[in-house]
Design brief:
277 residues; alpha/beta; Nucleotidyltransferase, domain 5; six-stranded mixed β-sheet; five-stranded mixed β-sheet
Length: 277
């Protein structure tokens, strides 16, 4: 599902704009980038990792300040997308999905409050829906600031991107995306999603615990599984070296080139942030 918040008073400002803004928010950090659709380049990118987990309201304050300091408010945008990163989500088979049961899908996987706003995405390429709790105060702030915008959960963007990858042959592939203290793990057999989950991780030992535990539950052999790491990890760092002790077929996942240019190091820009554009 494509959801848009609309403010008709702001739409007229967007007619001649050729900039797209992508914003990703979590309680542990935020990032954003601006795409120049005419020049096919990233005009601006920024990321900020918090020293501690913030409240949703402190997150909004940090976002407001970061947009101001980095000159984002000097642009006019043809399109704005917000990506919500948290563990308050649940994947539901499309055939079993009902808009009337959003709270029931979440209550066994996440702690939700009666005042929480619940929403959902249809995941393109998979017969599944993603039910989640967005940061409602951030959405309200962006609505007041930009008018019309689209929002999704980070798991939706990640899975939509991975399922579009060329089929790499037989056997299972495990993708582990690391960002802002969160580990997203997806296992595919061809184009079929076998498993997806997110975990809070503070170090490489946490990452390996959840990875090996999940593989054991799925009855997948660490000696044959293909492990592809992406996000805040690089070959030779502590996470990669520890994983290589247990997983033989391991590598850093390098996405195919995007049709636009980067004016800074591409590896410093979050995978889901880029793939939302």
């Amino acid at each position: 599902m494509t959801k848009k918040e609309t403010n008709s008073n702001r739409l007229g400002q967007k007619e001649d704009s050729f900039y797209k803004l992508s914003i990703q928010v979590s309680l542990n950090g935020l990032s954003f980038c601006i795409l120049d659709t005419i020049g096919k380049r990233l005009a601006l990118s920024h990321s900020l990792r918090f020293n501690e987990e913030l409240s949703p309201y402190d997150l909004q304050r940090e976002l407001r300040e970061s947009l101001r300091v980095n000159g984002v408010l000097d642009f006019t945008f043809s399109e704005v997308i917000a990506i919500h990163r948290n563990a308050l989500f649940s994947l539901v088979p499309q055939a079993l999905f009902s808009e009337d049961d959003l709270a029931n899908y979440l209550k066994f996987n996440a702690k939700i409050l009666p005042t929480d706003h619940l929403d959902y995405d249809a995941i393109d390429g998979l017969d599944a829906m993603n039910v989640y709790v967005p940061f409602a105060n951030v959405n309200n702030y962006l609505y007041d600031l930009f008018g019309e915008f689209e929002f999704k959960h980070t798991a939706t963007v990640l899975l939509e991107t991975l399922v579009k990858l060329p089929n790499s042959g037989t056997g299972e592939i495990c993708y582990v995306h690391l960002a802002e203290g969160q580990m997203d793990m997806a296992v595919f057999t061809g184009k079929k999603l076998q498993y997806f989950n997110s975990f809070s991780c503070s170090n490489e030992a946490d990452i390996m615990y959840y990875l090996l535990f999940a593989l054991e539950q799925l009855q997948l052999d660490p000696s044959t599984i293909k492990l592809r790491l992406l996000g805040e990890v690089e070959e030779g760092d502590a996470t990669y070296e520890l994983a290589s002790r247990y997983i033989e077929n391991i590598s850093i996942f390098v996405p195919s080139g995007h049709p636009f240019q980067f004016e800074g190091p591409e590896e410093g820009i979050d995978f889901t942030l880029i793939n939302s554009l």
